[in-house]
Every structure is written in C-alpha cells, then in structure tokens.
Structure prediction request, 448 residues.
Amino acid sequence: MAFSSDVRDPEVVDLLQHLIRNACVNDGTEASGHERANADILRAGLEGSGCDLETYEPLPGRTSLVARIDGREADAPALCYLGHTDVVPVNPDTWSRDPFGGELVDGEVWGRGAVDMLNLTASMAVAFGRLARSGFRPRGTLILAAVADEEALGSHGTGWLTEHAASSVEADYVITEEGGVPIETPGGRRLAITVGEKGSCWCRLRVRGTAGHASAPLRTDNALVTAAAIVGRLAAFRPMPDVHDAWRRFVGGMALPEEIAAMFLDPARIDEICESFPHLGLARQAHACTHMTIAPTIVHGGTKLNVIPDQVELDLDVRTLPGQTEDDVRSLLAEAIGDLGDKVEIVWAHNDPASESPVGTPLWDELDAMVKRFHPGAESVPYFSTGATDGRFFRRRGAVAYGFGMFSDRLSFDQFLSMFHGDDERVDIESLALSTEMFEALPRSFLA
Prediction:
C-alpha cells in the first residue's frame, strides 16, 4: 500500500517539532535531561480534555507526566502508552541539518528524537488527547506515561514510577517504542511487533600500569597502550552464537528463501551470512540478536601530557541474550582479554537481564488486526530488540509489553535502524499521521 503526501496530521507534526526543539538531552548525569520542558508541553495540550493529569519529579527538572482515562470496570484490563521525552547527545557537525531545529523538509521532520522516540510520544499524546476530548470512557483504564530518563536506564523515569508511584501506571498491557516499520520480504510485507529485548550488563574495565616520564617510553608499563590492545582484542573477539526461540520466531515469520533462513538459524553458519548479507541493518540485527555483544564506548585515562598513565578506564556496553548472566559476561570478557587479564579489574555498573512477552495475547491480536487494516495483505512478525526500552520495567511486574508504531513505506527497515542514536534522524509525516490514527483507534476496540 502506498501512502501519498496527503496523509498528514498538522497537530502531531507541530507537537513533534516542539518536543525536538526543547532539546531534552540526557547524557547520563542527574543534572541533564531537563525533561520538564517536554512534560509541560504535553500537559498543556491535555489540560481541559477531561483526563486526570499528574506529574512526578524525583529530581529537579526530571519530570514525567502521567495521564489517565479511568475505566468503567475496575477489574478490566488496563492499557498504557509508554513514551519517553529525553534524547541522546548529538554531534551537530555530522548532521545535514540542525539536530534541534525540528525542520519540516520534503515531508519529513528532522531532529534528534524524531525516531527515538519523540515521534511515537507525540502520536500517543495527540491520540490520547483526542480520545479524552471525545468523551471516550473505556471499560479498562487507558494511561499515557510520558517519562524522563529512558536514555539512561530509566532510574529517574519509569524505574522510579514503578517503584514509588506504581498505582498511577499499573497496567496489564503496555505499548512502547520500536516496531511497525514495513519490511519487504519474498513472501510479502511484514511489520515487526517487538516482544522482547536483550539485557544490559554495563561495566568498566580498570586497566593498570606504572607511572613514568613520557620522555623515555621504552619498556614502560603504559596503561593506555595496554588498554588499546584490550580494545583491539574486544573488537576482534567473536563469541559463539546462541540461536534462541525469539530469533527463530522472527526468521520463521519473514518468508525468507529457504537457504537464507537456514543460514540465519544455523549456529555454524550465521556468522558467515551476517558478514555478507547485503542489507546491513538486518545483518547487524541478526548478529546482535544471536550473540552477546561487547562494545567499548568511552575511555578515561592519563593525567598529564608528559606522564606515562598508570590507569585507564574503558566503559563497555555489553548486551546479553535470554538466560545469560553476569557470570557469563565475566567469562566472555576473560576469554576475549586473554593474558592481559591480570592487568584488569572489572567494575560492574548495571545489570538488567533480557526480558520477553508472549505472542498470541489479546493485545497481540489487536495489533495484528491494525497491521492488516493499515497495510492490507501484510503480516505481523514477532521481533526481539537489541536495545533496551522501558518496557522491561512492566514485564517484570507481570505486564505484557510490546514495541509498536505504524509507519509508512517511505521509511525502510535499514534506515529506521540506522537512525537510532545516529545522524540525520528524521521521520515522514505520513508515519506520524498513521501512528496517531492507530493509537486513537486501538483503545476503541481493545478497551471497549
């Protein structure tokens, strides 16, 4: 199904532009984020609509907004739209346009967060407001949670809400980010519904050396040189694949040629196809969905230009598969680092295990119906995310949490994946309109 430029929704476009321009950048520090600016905009748009509104601010400026349309029946299932309002840092020098300009160019809104995930947050909020103003009174409660701090583990956002204000966001079903982008396969169009995500096991390697004068570097024990060697080993290391059930379900639903599908499901051959598969986005996802991944991302070290450093710290983003533990990460790091291990101390920063929701639930069936409504002839396929979302907090509390939006065919799967935390993030106005329409239609059937 092709969508024309006539498919547009000025209200959601305008809201997304404002959310982008507020530049709620979360660099992981408590003083960053400033999500209050986006919470205020969303609250202003919902005031007077007839819904209940509450804001929560565990730290100054780290504001989350919760809006509710209470259900008629206390025991009926509740649905939560979960969107975050913060974005990751950006290097403006590598962008084609101002990353916080929110420009509308050739039918696309540009800016940091346009894909991750201010587009869906805006669509959820506009749809929720329209439902509230229409007098919609569902059988089960509908919740909109626009949260802070998702980009830094959610400690001051969803994590805080589910611990300190759980009754305000308690839900049986949750929809959050990632999913709904059309994927063209030999068997027809597929739309992924994210059912689970890898775990995060972040750590720091403290690499030791011996201080000395940098004017005489011969045979010194330079912690930076050792750290560089360790980074090289981590980059070259190839852990064994683990073809788990979630990945098997995704490949099984993609209608790939038999030989290609067999390679993606064969632990002995999956590395080969990941290296050669022409669609880079899918190749990266295939590799990340079937391997524990270790990515060095930040380095700290040295005290002065003319001093041999005696300590360097490497921050690692480690993502784990279902069933993998901190002990598994420790073993893999030891194997990768090898004989340099006696120079390294591991400092554990954070460990969240992988989480997953079942398919075939009432919400799955409703989303599948939406896929067929907006993309006639398309099929749903369960998808396992390589990144973290706030859905994991709800899964731990027994809720079913999926990632989903409704996107047009202007945005390819590879483009979509490449823009998460990447350059030139943008989303087309057709997708904004489709997501908004879907988020308004879903509660009328699911919560009726």
In short: Residues 199-239+292-352 form a domain with the Alpha-Beta Plaits fold (CATH 3.30.70.360).
